[in-house]
Write a structure and sequence with these properties.
two-stranded antiparallel ribbon, 3 helices, about 10% strand
Length: about 130
């Protein structure tokens, strides 16, 4: 197993390298950069942070946020809540009416005069009676 020398690692990070871009036809130097591992790491880190920041700003401050699933305006959320409440109350009233009709069918189909009452409805307090 190779020995890990911390001093050697820090020295390699500070070594400078030269990146040269040349013209392939004339072999002229177009651009030359002096880089170290630290500067490359810092450059990529800054670029990553800027890209993430720009993406968040683009989504947060433009209408693109409305295309994110689950995100909507306050008005649409309140409208959806109101529709949900109405749907629940309609389902409850349908259930009570079905329960009433089941009791009527039971009384009419048996023909037994001893059982004159239908199944009692169990309405929670504050609910209006079925017409």
């Amino acid at each position: 197993m190779a020995n890990f020398d911390i001093n050697n690692t820090f020295k390699r990070r500070s070594n400078t390298y030269r990146l040269v871009v040349t013209n392939d036809d004339t072999y002229d130097e177009v651009v030359a950069f002096r880089l170290s591992r630290n500067s490359v790491y810092m450059g990529f880190s800054i670029a990553f942070i800027l890209l993430v920041g720009l993406t968040i700003a683009l989504i947060a401050f433009t209408p693109l946020k409305y295309y994110i699933p689950g995100y909507g305006t306050k008005e649409s959320r309140t409208a959806l809540q109101l529709l949900k409440i109405r749907t629940d109350s309609l389902e409850q009233s349908i259930h009570y009416k079905e329960q009433y009709l089941e009791g009527l069918k039971k009384v009419l189909s048996e023909g037994n005069t001893k059982q004159l009452d239908t199944i009692p409805l169990q309405l929670p307090e504050g609910q209006p009676s079925i017409d």
